[in-house]
Amino acid sequence: MARRVPLRLALSTALAAAAFALPATALASPAVDGTRNLALGNNSRASSYGSNALLANPSNMTFSGVFAIEPMYQLNIRSRTSGLGVVVMDSLNNSRVSLGLGYLFMRGTPTVTFTDEETGEDRDFELSRFGHEAFAAVSVAIVKRWLSFGIKPKYQYASLRYRDSTGAARNASHKLSAFGLDLSMTANLAGWAAVSVVATNITGFSKPAFTDDSDVSLVDVGATAGTIRYKSLSELAEYPLGVAWGVSVFPLHKIDFSINADGYYDFSTFKFEKATRNVYGGSAEFVAGPVPLRFGTTYDSRGRGKADDRVFVSGGIAYVRQAPLGSVGVDIGFGFSQQVKGPLKETILGLNLGLRLNPDL
User: Fold this and answer.
1) Which of 5, 180, 257, 305 can pair with 204 through a Cys bridge, CB separation 3.0 to 4.6 Å?
2) What is the bridge-based pairing of β-strands 81-90 and 169-171?
3) What are the residues whose beta carbons fall under 8 Å from the beta carbon of 165, sequence distance 6 or more?
């Protein structure tokens, strides 16, 4: 059996890795799902593990022994937004308590179109989308291998800006700078199935940049009032207040094969029309030796009516080599999500290159 990693070493290594990542790049969770989560259409909360559990469902960190440092990248092609991040987690040290740290950053240049006041012609106009997030997570096994609770406090920042005709920077929408909190709980049913509940952004949630009733603010750029069209700017809130559930079944009695069903309810994005955004989906993962194969499909109901509803398909592949005692393993993955139904087709690509450690101490 692998020896336990001392708590002091785990914490110091995690903090050092996170500090090293801070000056280099940066991102926000709206632009980073985690490669496994993306490939499964974010329909894998109850079966998540490792760094992907740290992002999607911290309570699951205690159900698998992992000490990992993982950088990741994600690209949303339609919104021209890139996300970068580094996460560090340790669930090897203690069978009851797992720890995680992360820093995420996003940078995007979405465009809108409006009618120019002077020429009367349509004009494409570029905005600047920016955000970052720093978080810590703790997972505690209330009943070992059966019931676990997770908490993730975080600082989150998001802005949408532009430059007016004089070159001055202006806010196109309200700026978010707040402390957020996620809570989660997972019940594992003797290794055959798992049920999870996750509450996201209980504090620090945000409103969308625009709604059917209010446009983004574009001052001193020649935009004719009431003519703004949103070509690539998302209608969703960056950090919505939400609740999700997940159910996973493991037919082989191990996580190498999982079948998942998830639901998510966004209470803040469409609050202006007194509607809740409902997202439902299913996925499956099968690990063939060192190669996980991942597939998923998701239905996203946005606000009232059917006109904005979307359907996505997703998939991915990875290579995972577990870390032998006293050595290093790897987790290299690729995932994608492709919208196949609904307006403004969206494509998202994700990559990760993770190191798994198992020190012989």
Assistant:
1) 180
2) unpaired
3) 220, 221, 222
The whole-angstrom separation of Cα 64 and Cα 356 is 13
Q: What is the largest CA-CA distance in the chain?
A: 74
The one-letter amino acid at 42: N
pLDDT value for 18: 34
Report which residue type is found at 43: N
- DSSP one-letter string for 292-360: EEEEEEEEEE-SSSSTT-EEEEEEEEEEEEPPPTTEEEEEEEEEEEEEEESSS--EEEEEEEEEEEE--
pTM: 0.88
Which token pair is 86? 């580094």
Distance CA 47, CA 39 (A): 13
CA angle 351, 356, 357 (to 5 degrees): 155
Torsion, Cα of 253, 258, 261, 267 (10° steps): 100
Distances (CA, A) of 81 to 20, 28, 35, 105, 316: 23, 11, 16, 10, 20
Closest-CA residue to 30 (of 230, 173, 201): 201
Question: Contact 259/49 with Cβ under 8 angstroms?
Answer: no
Cα gap 204→156, rounded to integer Å: 8
pLDDT of the residue at 304: 85
Give the Cβ contact number of residue 249 at 10 Å: 16
Q: How far is C-alpha 169 from the geometric centre of its chain's CA atoms?
A: 28
Residue in the block written with tokens 């009733």: 213
How much is the pLDDT for 361? 64
CA distances, 7 to each of 3, 12, 78, 254, 361 (Å):
12, 9, 43, 28, 12
Q: Give the C-alpha separation, 341 to 318, whole Å.
A: 27
Which residue is listed with tokens 């009618």?
A: 115
Distance CA 346, CA 304 (A): 21
Interior angle at CA 49, CA 189 and CA 61, nearest 5: 80
What is the pLDDT, as a whole number, of residue 326?
Answer: 83
